[in-house]
Amino acid sequence: MLIQTLLKLCVLSLLSGTISAAEMKVSQGDTQAAEALTAGLLRASENPESPFHLQVNCTDEKGIRSMNLFPGGTAIWNGSSQVTVPPTTRSALLRSLLNQGFPDFKESYGGRDRPEKEAAAPRISCQISIKIEDLQKISVQKAGGQQSTELTGLAAGLLDQVAPFAQDGISASNLQDALDKLLAGQLAPQSLNLRFMELPAKDKTAQGYIIRLRGGNLSRQAYSPGSSIGEAKWQALEQGQYLKLVTALQQAELANLPGNLWSEEQLELEIQVLDQKKIVLARPFGRLDQKAQAAEKQRFDTLLLSVRDLGQ
């Protein structure tokens, strides 16, 4: 029964999370694209089951707030809890974007002029991003300079509509609790983020790779430090791989693994579920006692069988 429940949740979340990979960015002044986005928002607002992905972050008098709403209604609130947004509210969010003219917003507002040698990126105080059909629109408010009350007001309004549902959100007390809730189907696949990098330690010219899992989607790209990095092509994670991965994560007892392990290769594994995170570095550390870590290394190696299989 548990596996059947998890399987149904996985299928629903992963299939509803698929949006066209060939997204066209909507820029200010591109009348045709803005009109297409307006039409897409209108269609989706009239059909609550239409898939879209909405992200909103804003810092204002109510504090630092964020929402990551995935197709199907699962949302991550403030990075720490999973909430379910009903169809009526999803439609209302899209109507807010339409009523405030979001398709015609600038890509960025504010920001200070910076010296050419100053490398620090400008701080973003507010951001709205929507992906729907084959369109993507992002508008950000940079700290300093002229501020857009339209953007900050729209962002605050969108967050206010979802905030009441956060009271019934699902959170995790620790990483093991988060993984248990993933396995039980209480947390959706979108709440799981993964980053894994593997580089050959002996042959510096050999190519490694990076695997990323984010929002129920997976990418695998070639990586040669200081030389090249391949294109990240995203695809929906297959349900069989997801079930295998969450089972392996739960059985690995991640919370009890050391942050540093010995390995002939250079490996970095980062797992995050909501606000619970674990990072393990494995490489030829000279001062580590391999025999003392034998059991932990075995658990880590067993977990990597499922991680390396992602995207294959």
Polypeptide structure, described:
There is one protein chain. By secondary structure, the chain is an alpha+beta fold. It is built from seven helices and 16 strands. It has helices spanning 2-16, 31-46, 87-99, 149-162, 175-183, 239-251, 294-308; strands spanning 24-25, 52-60, 63-69, 74-77, 81-84, 108-110, 124-132, 135-142, 192-199, 208-214, 217-224, 228-229, 235-236, 260-262, 266-273, 276-283. The strands form two sheets. Strands 1, 2, 3, 4, 5, 6, 7 and 8 form an eight-stranded mixed β-sheet that branches. Strands 9, 10, 11, 12, 13, 14, 15 and 16 form an eight-stranded mixed β-sheet that branches. Helix 3 (87-99) runs antiparallel to helix 4 and helix 6 (239-251) packs antiparallel against helix 7 (294-308). The longest helix is centred in the N-terminal third of the chain and has 16 residues, at 31-46. The radius of gyration is 21 Å and the shape is globular.
Please specify the SSE layout and strand pairing.
Blueprint: H1 2-16, E1 24-25, H2 31-46, E2 52-60, E3 63-69, E4 74-77, E5 81-84, H3 87-99, E6 108-110, E7 124-132, E8 135-142, H4 149-162, H5 175-183, E9 192-199, E10 208-214, E11 217-224, E12 228-229, E13 235-236, H6 239-251, E14 260-262, E15 266-273, E16 276-283, H7 294-308
Parallel strand pairs: 1-8, 6-8, 14-16
Antiparallel strand pairs: 2-3, 2-7, 3-4, 4-5, 7-8, 9-10, 9-15, 10-11, 11-12, 11-13, 15-16
Count of structural domains: 2
* Rg, nearest Å: 21 Å
Q: Which ranges are low-confidence, i.e. pLDDT below 50, for 5 or more consecutive residues? A: 1-22
Query: What is the structural class?
Result: alpha+beta
What is the average of the pLDDT values?
A: 86
Number of helices, counting only DSSP H or I runs of 4 residues or more: 7
The residue fraction in helices comes out at: 25-40%
Question: How are helices and strands ordered from N to C?
Answer: HEHEEEEHEEEHHEEEEEHEEEH
Proportion of residues in extended strands? 25-35%
Give the N-terminus to C-terminus distance in angstroms: 29 Å
Shape: globular
Largest sheet: 8 strands, mixed
Give me the count of strands.
16
